[in-house]
Amino acid sequence: MTKIKNETIRIIPLGGVGEIGKAMYVVEIDEEIFVVDSGLMFPEDEMLGIDIVIPDVTYLEENKDRIKGIFLTHGHEDAIGSISYLLNKVQAPIYGSRLTIALAKEHLKEMPAPHPVKFFEVTNRSRMNFKSTYVTFFHTTHSIPDSLGIAFHTSEGAIVHTGEFKFDQSAQGSYRPDIAKMAGLGEEGVFILMSDSTEAERPGYTTSESVVEGHLSEAFYGAKGRILVSLYSSNFIRMQQVFNKSLEVKRKVAVVGKTLENVFEVGLKLGYLTVDEDTLISIKDIDKYADDEVIIIVSGTQGEPLEALEKMVRKHHKDVKIKDTDTVLITFTPSPGMEVAMYKTMNHLAKAGAKVLTADKKVHVSGHGSQEDLKMMLNLMKPQYFIPIQGEYRMLMAHSKLAQSTGLSKAQIFIADKGDIVEYKSGKMRMSGRVQAGNVLIDGIGVGDVGNIVLRDRKLLSQDGIFIVVVTLNRAQKKIASGPEILSRGFVYVRESEKLMDESTELVKKIVEKYVNKETFEWTNIKQEIRDTLNSYLFQQTKRRPMIIPIIMEY
Q: CA 395 to CA 415: how far, in whole Å?
């Protein structure tokens, strides 16, 4: 505990609650603000054309002078993927483990911050001192090495953010959890516990990674042709297992995907991946080897696992085309919104003749703790208050019930939505309002310029198409100079709908002639009547509502 009496403590999730990914949590202690994680989320099905989704950081931008640091728990995209966007809005030092800092720097190469950025590498022995608090760290087990939990020490006890974790008794080296330090925090007194809820609905303990390694051996020995392993780009533990098994089955390994290649190079350079030099080959050289001598590790441009695999199966990938002798290992659990795309890809793979193995074949286990893991964390920490984080609402609720089963009351548990303020003041913990929060959609180089209205239009265009009416007026002679000309895309097949087009043209002509014969008229009135009339007529004839765009010109 700190010697200084802390008057006000606030926890504000800006992302990571009510969803999987996009982690960002604000810890306010008196006047100082600390940000934990700055992640991204891959788009849901209805987010047409969107590349990634990041948190709305308006609150941080409005309070940027109070931000003392950005603390990163681990190097996955859901924890560091929006760091470049955040640093374009605020200026603050970044704290994280050696690997996490290296991966964050890779992000900043793609999109540099407009100011110098200070990085501080921390370990489980580090202590960072601030005016209102001091911060310590502890190792956790996740699917990427060097993952950390973070403790902000206050006069009321520690505010502990677990990061994403599980307990794996076979974990070694930089994957090994620091259980003694977790227990020590619990003995000293944990004021607020913020804990990962991703697998809160799954009973038991999460399966050990050592079990997966055994099943990978079976899959590799059973494969007759090439082996393709699809994974998230920063799943280091799965990459290492693939390289370990490649030596066992005497196969060469190629790494495919820009983000994956960058992450792989970082892991190799820093010693977090151990790879035999003779094992690694370029994707350009795979044709020099027999199919039963090759393994391909694949991920997409943003680090997600499906994009490149889909291109390969559709024969659009420049280097790899799926063969009917291939074995494809899908070593990830799809996040919400990705399930449909994953099953479509699996169907295409099956149609191409490839053998597909997924998580239910034990070629993947979650990097997150199941119910018994989560209860173990709760019992180690013994918190006074509990805030479940990192999960959809049903997962947060399931985690809340687990906490109650360990002895916490409902009054000690706060389930917060994005932007909710959980505040401790004058001896009381309560919800005390909201700040601006939500999704910022990234499309190409556009940041936040695609909102709900644009998405609605994209959805409308994808469903019923577009119907464009072009008319040129001679205003001096009060008559139509040319047109109406109608262009249709994604609505009807024009050659088989001549009657519909002719009648639509006649309706537009009558509306325009009615207006041009008046002394004065507003173009907006003509356009609105064209939209209303055509909307009614086209729906009556087709039961569809295309987007109608009237274009009126004059000379």
A: 11
Tokens describing residue 85: 């966007």
**Residue 448, pLDDT score:** 47
The reply to whether 8-204+366-447 and 465-554 are identical in fold is: no
The separation between the first and the last C-alpha atoms of the chain, rounded to the nearest angstrom, is 78
Cα three-residue angle 218-169-368, rounded to 5 degrees: 80
pLDDT in tens, 120-133: 999 999 999 999 99
Task: Specify whether the CB–CB gap between 267 and 239 falls below 8 A.
Answer: yes
What does the block give as tokens for 41? Answer: 């989320």
Domain borders along the chain are 8-204+366-447, 209-361, 465-554
Q: Is 21 exposed, middle or buried (0-12, 13-18, 19+ CB in 10 A)?
A: buried
Candidates 210, 226, 251; CA nearest to 362 is 210
Nearest to 421 by CA among 407, 408, 410, 435: 435
CATH of domain 8-204+366-447: 3.60.15.10
Round to whole Å and give the CA distance between 338 and 390: 17
Tell me the HSE value of 413 on the side-chain side, using a 13 A CA sphere: 20
**240-299 pLDDT per residue, tens:** 999 999 998 999 999 998 888 999 999 999 999 999 888 999 999 999 999 999 999 998
The rounded distance, in Å, linking the Cα atoms of 487 and 323 is 42
- pTM here? 0.80
Integer Cα distance of 43 and 439 in angstroms: 10
CATH of domain 209-361: 3.40.50.10710
CB-based contacts of 501, cutoff 8 Å, min separation 6: 486, 488, 494
Please state, in angstroms and rounded to a whole number, the distance separating the CA atoms of residues 223 and 221.
6
Sheet with strand 294-298: strands edge to edge: 280-281, 252-256, 294-298, 227-230, 327-330, 355-357
User: What is the rounded distance in angstroms from the CA atom of residue 511 to the CA atom of residue 163?
Assistant: 63
Q: Which CATH class is domain 465-554?
A: alpha beta
Q: 321 vs 255, 280, 385, 477, 506, CA distance in Å?
A: 15, 20, 53, 63, 51
**CB-based contact 43:20 (threshold 8 Å):** no
Check the CA dihedral 38-43-46-48 and report its sign.
positive
Cβ–Cβ < 8 Å for 267, 198 = no
For residue 129, give the 3-state DSSP assignment: strand
Q: How far is CA 169 from CA 142, 200, 373, in A?
A: 12, 19, 11
